[in-house]
Amino acid sequence: MIYLKTKQLPVLLALLGMLLTGCSDELDQPELNNNFAGGTDFSKTDDMIFSLIGVYQSVADRGWEQPLVVSTRGDDVNAAGDQQGLKNQDRYVYDNSFFGSRTLWETYYDDIIGAHTGMEQIERYMEFADEEGKALGEQYIAEAKVLRAILLFQLSQVYGAVFIPESSNLNDFANVTSVPSKDEVMQHISDQMDEAILFLLDMRPNERTDLPGGVTKYTALHIKALANQELKDYQAVADATGQIISSGKFSLFPDFYELFKTPGKLSNESLYEFQYSDFGVGTGDRVSHQYDPYGPNGWTPTVTGASAGWGFFEPSMKYVKFMLDRGEKERLETSVLFTQNGIDSIINTTSYTAATLPSFVSPTTRDGDILRDNARHIFSSGKHYLPSNQLIPGRTAYGSNKNYIVYRYAETLLMYAEALLQGASNSAMSADQAVNLVRERAGLMPVSGVTLDQLVDEKYAELAMEWGKRFFDMVRLGRYEELSYEGRTFTADKAFVRYHQDQIDEFPILGEISN
After folding, report:
1. Residues 54-75: tens digit of each pLDDT
2. CA 166 to CA 84: how far, in whole Å?
3. Strands 270-274 and 336-338
């Protein structure tokens, strides 16, 4: 198997003793409240959990640019602002000197190697543990495998062929001679999830009391379904998603608008989310993601002093028109924030008038924040928006205290329905039932005899602006015409971002690959 060497790996990953500085009751509020430390005494088996917590920390500690590199292609979203490399990528012009592509590769692999270090540390604790401790160690290793899989899956979606690290031993990468294909990576992830599922807890993430929101058996099943969807093994998709559905443990959060805000944190819909927290206080330590790229570049917030954003991530006009034509309210109001310029653009390019547009198409959000016209964008992402009145008093950073949803049950249902429509079989429910659960939450009428085209539209409406899911669906299904819009032309050779020149210099074999 292929291993990876990365020159930029920090020294701390060679040690990666993880030590929690906060109490576990703050893990609702995330697992992330900890530091790395060396000099670990592995005979103190009660400390084994700290090695796992360190993996949770590193996986969720994403730089602002990394989710954007994963997400900013497809006809649901456009790159905006002054990040030319991101704007080029959005138009399928891949710049192998774009810093975002470099940091995505480097930091994801740093954290994948860190996950292996954590697993190896847990194995060392298990040498001193009793039978109960050994069983707990197996569970923790399985959790680390799932966290590792999240990053490896996204890397392969972005780049196609990527390395598959199998340990933390960096000396094994000196003479890399081959790179696993995307299909090989996806099969590896599927196999890893089969291994992990045997040891993971049979509960929702929000049912865990040791690490609230931590991964469980169902997180692994969801990732297995995603990997097999990329492989077009739709029976495997139906089998994995069918287990999640048949468990009866998950349900859709009733309020789509609040799902992506504070009330939706760790809901019964969540299969996994990156957790961030202000720990309930207006000053002092906080664990956060930098949501500024998604925020409006100018606004008048309900709460005076709440910061605006950078305006790098803009829902597309194509998506807005698609949703208006479907008569969407809940999902469009949730997914898109409007400036007056955006509203004027809708009126100037469609048959809608100021009188016929729905009332929620307004520069003023439901929570009273007002988007101002600016030079960078005409729409902003509502799924990455935390209303200023949900900020903890004293906090002003855009999106402070907001979690970042990674996987949710609505996607499980839609993957399941698609698998059935692609020829798979399962008795958990029908494709109509799965789709109609999602439509009912959105306030839409049920459908009967759902078709693949209708299913694809449903995924577009439900999952837009979430981790590039629309783009990857259209590539997988060969619906390239959907990605050729607003002056863009997509062809099959544009499916994968180019490796950064730094990676090619380090691993010349990458320069020989034509994804």
Report:
1. 999 999 999 999 999 999 999 9
2. 35
3. unpaired
Write out pLDDT tens, residues 275-300: 999 999 999 999 999 999 999 999 99
CA distance 250 to 100: 35
pTM of the model: 0.92
Q: What is the pLDDT of residues 411-467, one digit of tens each?
A: 999 999 999 999 999 999 999 999 999 999 999 999 999 999 999 999 999 999 999
Q: 383-397 burial, b if ≥16 CB within 10 A, otherwise e?
A: bbbbbbebbbeebeb
| DSSP3 helix / strand / coil % (the chain, rounded to 5) | 50, 5, 45
What is the identity of the amino acid at 59? Answer: V
| Token output for 484 | 């050729």
Q: How many CB atoms lie within 10 A of CB 1?
A: 11
Rounded distance, CA 133 to CA 42, Å?
12
**At which residue do the structure tokens 């449903």 appear?**
458
Residue found by looking up tokens 């009733």 in the block: 254
Q: Is 449 left (phi over 0), alpha (psi -120 to 50) or beta?
A: left
Within 13 Å of residue 331, how many CA atoms lie on the same side as its CB?
A: 28
Per-residue confidence (pLDDT) for residue 359, from 0 to 100: 96
> What are the tens digits of pLDDT across the range 103-133?
999 999 999 999 999 999 999 999 999 999 9
pLDDT for residue 173: 73
Q: Using an 8 Å Cβ cutoff, are 425 and 238 in contact?
A: yes
Q: Using DSSP, state whether 270 is helix, strand or coil.
A: strand
Residue bearing tokens 């209708």: 454
Q: Which residues contact 304 (CB under 8 A, 6 or more apart)?
A: none
**Identity at 314, one-letter amino acid code:** E
**473 contacts: CB under 8 Å, gap ≥ 6:** 456, 459, 479
Residue matched to tokens 């101002």: 372
Which amino acid is located at 453 in the chain? D
**Structure tokens, 229:** 């969807």
- Is residue 35 within 8 Å of 19, Cβ to Cβ? yes
The secondary structure of residue 364, as a DSSP letter, is B
Give how far Cα 96 sits from Cα of 9, 269, 473, Å: 21, 38, 24
Handedness of CA 55, 60, 64, 69 (dihedral sign): positive
Cβ count within 10 A of residue 86 = 25
